[in-house]
Design brief:
This protein is α/β, with parallel strands linked by helices. It contains 15 helices and 13 strands. Helix 1 crosses helix 2 (14-33), helix 2 (14-33) packs across helix 4 (49-61) and helix 2 packs across helix 5 (76-106).
Amino acid sequence: MDTSILGTLFQIAPDLMASIELRALVMERVAALGPIGRRALAQRLHLPEREVRSAADALKASGCLSQSAAGMTLTPLGQSLVDSARTVSQGRRSLSSMELTLSRRLGVERVCVVHGDADLDDSVLPEVARAVTRHIRFLLQGAHVLAVSGGRTLAMAAEAITPAVPMEITVVPAQGGTGGSIREQANTLAEEFARKLGGESRMLYLPDGLSGAAADEMSRLPQVREVLDLLQHADVLLYGISPALSSAVRRNIGMGERENLMRHGAAAEALGFYFNAKGEVVSGGYPLLRAQNIGICCHAAAVAAGTSRAEAIIAVCAHHPHRLLITDEGAAQRIMELLRAT
């Protein structure tokens, strides 16, 4: 298959390419390893068994795959298509190798990398958002409370979620209001995620920029205290990471404070906290949230795309436990360059 055709297909239907690549990868690996069971194949591919099962069922329905007690094998039709499938799966294998490398080097349980660089191509960010929707229900298995931050990518993700079986989940904002577009505020996204997932949401009445004393006083309000208690016990935290300086500009932080951030080596911003390259909080965040250990939790899922976010991703993800990182090739390649240099 001409690889230019793959590029065309990605431009026409980027939302379908992940499924196509996975099916092609399953075909290529079954051709090499078959007969093989779905669980064994999922382990070899470092993918959830559910995803491999879905791809295998689709291939079986199309007549490319057969299943027996011994495992999966290709049909004659599948064998005739395996060379083309191998061409398609090369892109997925390259990303899979990158994902495994980043998982190991950053200490993140699972990394998902999508094609492209969001800094150079506006079509990449929606694909990153769709990757969030593909992982969200898997992340929430057994969870009761989801905390979400604000931001453009998560706003796209909330919009892209397809309503399905309602979940018993409470969604809370992981930060107060940050100014800017209402559509991208954490309160708005908590409500939208809850609506799409079939759960319920709460609002956090804490605007950005409150002094410690003012925030502490507001935390005494019952409606604020309830959300803070839920936030403290969140099972999953879904949030975005930004470079420190660009975030400070976006939040309209004064020049004096920006210079102070730079003096302290701020490299990343997440949830209103500014982190240095060692993952230490150097500024920002509500004191009452910091005191409750709200920030980065052991079930954290971070989303950040574009080469410009590589240093910020390392600053946060390499120093705090994460279950999932969703990023793109531009950021992933730059992260590996930076990690090789250390």
